[in-house]
Amino acid sequence: MATASFEAQERIRSSWIVSPRADLLWFTAGGAAAAYVFWALWRFTHVPLLLLVAIWAIVFDETHGFATISRTYLDAEERQRRGRWLWGSLAFFFAICPLLVFLHLGDEMELATVLWGYYHVFKQHYGFMMMYKKKNRDFKPVDMKLDKIFFAAAFYYPFLTYPLHDKEAAAMLPFPIIPRLASLYENLLLFLLILATLAYLVRQVQKWKGGQSLNWPKQFLFAAAIPVNYLLLRSGMPLLGIYAAVTIFHNVQYHRLVWFYNRNKYNLNNADARKYGLATLVNGRWLTYVAAAALYAIVFDVVPRFVLPAGVGLMNVGTRNQIIFSFFAAPGLLHYWVDGHIWKVRSDPELRTYLQL
């Protein structure tokens, strides 16, 4: 009886990043719900897609870009540690985007941005998976391999096959789609996905029978992050809407994670908080953080809507307008780059402390 009771406790015992309620509300179910609501408003209530995208861009996306700025460029300690790299990155992206448009490579830059954007979203979910694995000591070699393979296969399958089901996406490819090869390609990816899924499920059954923890926070993350992409990438929604709906999940996760980090690092009751400079002033209280993020969103999203003619984008005609647009688009690429380097938990002991890992 004692052994059975211990095994039952092991199966349900879980550790969360913030708390069960906060994690479910922001990192898993709540983030997915935001994406579903975005899609449902377009599909069933026929809210204009451009209005939905504008709300997403201003309220969620630009502000989450500021979240990265707030804990890097505004942080005196981070500037001292990474200053040359930070300023070099900023100069590079604000220069390269207009340059590529000037060289008539705007279409290629847009395709690269879409590919990088989806990878960026994947990497954040992957990062949460690894945090849940660390929190729950889910480090057995077989589980490390299976989790990574299954999640990558399940998350990327709808994206890698998306151009085969959507003309707009197919038009962005630099090569034509040959139907016979496309069918073989899709069937091969589907076979690999089924294989990875079966292997993952068999392993979970083995763990359950052996009385091992299934790491429920990780399972909730998978259940939230994987299905939403299948719905969106087969929904017939225009690409711009899909990009926004996929990313809004990422935005919701990111805002809560950064605020958790900020609260632990820039707490005004902490004697060392003042050494971080402007970051403490901005991130120490939620009201100043929201106000600064709103100002950033106005500068990089609201203002361009008045500066540029309606409908201007990287694939529209008019070099002058494209160059202006690319300047305002540069912070997004800068965010992808910087964000990919500042959340390396394994190699950054201070980050592990602030995230309570």
List low-confidence stretches: 1-10, 311-317
Q: Please tally the β strands and state the result.
A: 0
Helix content: over 70%
H/E series: HHHHHHHHHHHHHHH
Oligomer class:
single chain
How many domains, as an integer? 1
Quote the distance from N terminus to C terminus. 34 Å
Instruction: From the alpha carbons, calculate the radius of gyration and give it in angstroms.
Output: 22 Å
* Structural class designation: mainly alpha
Strand content: under 5%
Helix segment tally: 15
- Main beta-sheet annotation: none
Would you tell me the overall average pLDDT? 87
Indicate the overall shape.
globular
List the topology elements:
Layout: H1 2-12, H2 20-27, H3 29-43, H4 49-70, H5 76-102, H6 106-135, H7 141-160, H8 167-172, H9 179-209, H10 216-232, H11 239-265, H12 278-283, H13 286-307, H14 319-342, H15 349-354
Helix pairs in contact: 2-3, 3-10, 3-11, 4-11, 4-13, 4-14, 5-14, 6-10, 6-11, 6-14, 7-9, 7-10, 10-11
Structure description:
The protein is mainly α and 357 residues long. It has one domain (2-354). 76% of the residues lie in helices and 0% in strands. It has helices at residues 2-12, 20-27, 29-43, 49-70, 76-102, 106-135, 141-160, 167-172, 179-209, 216-232, 239-265, 278-283, 286-307, 319-342, 349-354. Helix 2 packs parallel to helix 3 and helix 10 runs antiparallel to helix 11. The radius of gyration is 22 Å and the shape is globular. The model is unreliable at 1-10 and 311-317 (pLDDT under 50).
